[in-house]
Amino acid sequence: MLGIVLNLILISLAVLALAAGTSFYVQEKEAGYVRGYTHLFSIAVFLICAGYGVMGFMPYAEYAFIPRLVGLYGIDVFLLMELSFLTMELKRKPGIRGITIGIFALYALFDLLIFGRPSALNYVRYDFHTAYENKMTGAFLFHYSFVSVICITLLHHGIKWYKIQKNKRDRLFVVEIILANFVLLFAALPDMFNLPFAKKYPTFLYSLAFSIVYFSYWIAVRQHLTFTPTVKNVSQEIFYSVDVPVLIFDLDGAVSLCNTAAEQECAIKDVSNATIRSLFTLSDVEMLRLLAKAKKGSPGKIETKIKSSKRPCSIHYTIRMDYTGEPFCIIGTVLMKENQNIDKNIEETEK
Questions:
Q1: What is the pLDDT along the chain (351 residues), one digit of tens a residue?
Q2: Which helix (H) or strand (E) holds 168?
Q3: Which residue intervals of 28-137 are DSSP H helices?
Q4: 51 vs 73: CA distance, rounded Å
Q5: Is 272 exposed, middle or buried (0-12, 13-18, 19+ CB in 10 A)?
């Protein structure tokens, strides 16, 4: 009966992973290439858990290799997608990325042909589920050498990814993903050493491990996106209805978001190419001083002019902090000099 329960868990994880990946793809339209990878990872986990779950329910052992091949394909796709994701994050040149992924894709193809063939394992039908017995042959060793090599490669790229991160939030994000991969290595050990539980239920532990890795990644990505300066982090209706120019900059001074008033007042045509320096007449010293204060979390005010209209103004800026207590964006409100003078006159009149 335990076999039925474990296979039902795998089928449930397959459906849950696919639902989570699909919902992320539909909802997170501003997530860039992360959106596509999250969906692909969910499909791979679906193939792994569904493939091995169906194999466990297969009443005829001679046909069990078919769903098992689906599960094995899912494992290879998941590992290749993770390698592709890491090289994308590291901004590797397209040629180097293509060669690296191409080598491992060829390795994965041989893994499917060698370890996925029906004769690579002995399939056994128990009372309530179907399993397999590993043959300590070249096919078995080839598969685990592939898994070991690609996991070491992923760890190597993950450490490099960690080193280029500048703040605690991004480093925590990387560490969460790197640590999740160790789950795969430890989950494979019982199968490699043919331990009692793995002997009767050989696919459950590492199918569960891939699910844990995926959901750890999914949670980490959602949390990371929460602290990215996008429309989702600022109430859209309020933000665009304010008639005072408001701009959101990253810690390098690039514009991440601006409201309609800012677009009109600062003559912004392409937000993706706009920066503080391109919109306002700030000197290098003023720019460096502003960014230095922002990275320390200090709000402030700076007098300047809008480049397009030469109108004098002041930028009043505050710093938004992330969940680690570090700054992650600058929110600047642009006030025109004439508006400030009107406000002063009104105050003086009231007095």
A1: 788 898 899 999 999 999 999 999 988 877 778 889 999 999 999 999 999 999 988 888 888 889 999 999 998 999 899 899 889 888 888 898 899 999 999 999 998 998 888 888 888 888 888 888 877 778 888 888 888 888 888 888 888 888 888 777 778 778 877 776 666 666 666 665 666 666 778 888 888 888 888 888 888 888 777 666 655 555 566 677 788 999 999 888 899 889 889 999 999 988 888 999 999 999 888 888 888 888 888 899 999 999 988 999 999 999 988 766 788 889 999 998 765 554 555 455 444
A2: helix 168-192
A3: 33-57, 65-89, 94-115
A4: 9
A5: exposed
- Per-residue burial over 222-251, b if 16 or more Cβ lie within 10 Å, else e, is eebbebbbbeebbeeeebeeeeebbbbbbb
Segments of 270-326 assigned E as strands: 300-305, 312-321
CA distance 206 to 257: 42
CA distance 25 to 39: 6
- Report CA-CA distances (Å) from 165 to 30, 159, 171, 229: 21, 10, 6, 17
Residue type, 121: L
- Integer Cα distance of 213 and 93 in angstroms: 27
Q: What pTM did the predictor assign? A: 0.67
CA distance 177 to 302: 40
φ, ψ for residue 304 (rounded to 5)?
A: -160, -165
Tokens of 315: 């930028």
Q: Measured between alpha carbons, how far is residue 245 from residues 35, 153, 313 in Å?
A: 31, 47, 11
Classify residue 99 as exposed, middle or buried by CB count within 10 Å of its CB (0-12, 13-18, 19+).
Answer: exposed
Per the structure block, which two tokens stand in for 269? Answer: 């045509």
Could you tell me the two tokens for 283?
């000197």
| DSSP letter (8 states) at residue 137 | S
